Amino acid sequence: MFTEELSEGLRRLLEKADRLEVFERATPQVRGVLTEQETIKCLTIRQFAPTVPEHLPWLEHVWSVAWDIPAGLFHEQRTVPFPAFNLVADSQQSAALYGCTSGCFAYSLKQQGHVIGIRFKPAFQSVFFDNVASDLTDTSVNARNAFSRDAVAILEQLASQGPEIHGIETLLDQLQRDAGPISKDARRMNQMAGYIETQPNVYRVADLVRAFNLSERSIQRHFHAHLGMSPKSVIERFRIQSAINHAAGERNDNFAALALRLGYFDQAHFINAFRHIIGHSPTEFARLRRAATEPIGVPPTKS
Q1: DSSP letters of 137-174?
Q2: Domains defined for the chain, CATH in brackets
Q3: How far is CA 131 from CA 60, 82, 135, 137, in A?
Q4: What is the mean pLDDT of residues 274-281?
Q5: Quick check: 97 and 146 in contact, CB under 8 A?
């Protein structure tokens, strides 16, 4: 009797472990948003993640953005995205797979709507995408070129109806069935990207060489194959995201000290890197953010 009860308990435990479950994050993890604080009030940002991340080593999280813009007005949502692939669908367009971007990403919002997407970890490339990751840098392809018909149909249904837990679990379950095996190199790439994101003192590729005991050439190959970006560019992206948060939220514009804290050789190098991606110097960006009082703009008139 004891043995039968133990077996039943183990069976239920294993069933629970195998069942894919997600939860909604109480506070979404958002970085690199160039939107004015007043505009953010028009947006609802949600994120969903698996309760056991190890079950889906190619997934970062599922995200959604809903907006409500007064009639006759518009807003251009600009971000400096994470270096990651995203599978995206909204209520107006077919689902598409977006590669990493070399600069800002802009998305025009008007009236009411919502968009849902999946942010993948670097291991995505070896699991779902047969081509070289750089083929998708700064561009996108129809989602049906990379994912099963069933997975895309579920995503587009969520885009038309709005995200909910059960539908997201169904989508991820389908993707899990579609996924190929994850390679050792892909898992290592996940680790390196995560290390850059979470360790504030990673400034150069040499820091990855020391941390992972790999040659610089090997690291370059990993990043090119899985993200289509150089490791130097990925490190730069996270430093610029930190600078955006500082410039948007701090009243003390001591950018010389910030440049030093972020590991730049001097303030001039920092300003050039910031302007290259954002289009403004840190001082200009901070001033524009603080001067913005209107949440959205009036569409430009056609001449």
Answers
A1: TT-EEEGGGTS-HHHHHHHHHHHHH---HHHHHHHHHH
A2: 18-178 (no CATH), 184-291 (1.10.10.60)
A3: 21, 21, 7, 12
A4: 88
A5: yes
Distances from the Cα of 51 to the Cαs of 20, 279, 280, in angstroms? 8, 39, 40
Letter string b/e over residues 201-214, b meaning 16 or more CB atoms within 10 A of that residue's CB: ebbebebbbeeeeb
Whole-angstrom distance, CA of residue 217 vs CA of residue 296:
46
Separation of alpha carbons 115 and 159, rounded Å: 6
Per-residue model confidence as pLDDT tens digits over 81-135? 889 999 999 877 889 999 999 888 888 888 888 899 999 999 998 899 878 898 9
Per the listing, tokens 């190890």 go with 54
87 backbone dihedrals φ, ψ, rounded to 5°: -100, 120
Between CA 147 and CA 96 the distance in angstroms is: 10
Residue 68 predicted with pLDDT over 90: no
- Reference 44, options 92, 90, 112, 131; nearest CA is 112
Q: Indicate if the pLDDT at residue 195 is higher than 80.
A: yes
Residues 109/76, Cβ–Cβ less than 8 Å: yes
φ/ψ of residue 65, rounded to 5: -130, 125
**Alpha carbon distance 49, 59 (integer Å):** 8
pLDDT for 1-32, tens place per residue?
A: 334 444 555 444 444 445 689 999 998 888 88
**Phi, psi at 135, each rounded to 5°:** -60, -20
Map residue 111 onto helix, strand or coil: coil
CA 198 to chain centre: 14
What 8-state DSSP symbol labels residue 58? T
The CA-atom distances, in angstroms, between 300 and each of 72, 74, 170, 259, 285 are 11, 10, 42, 36, 22
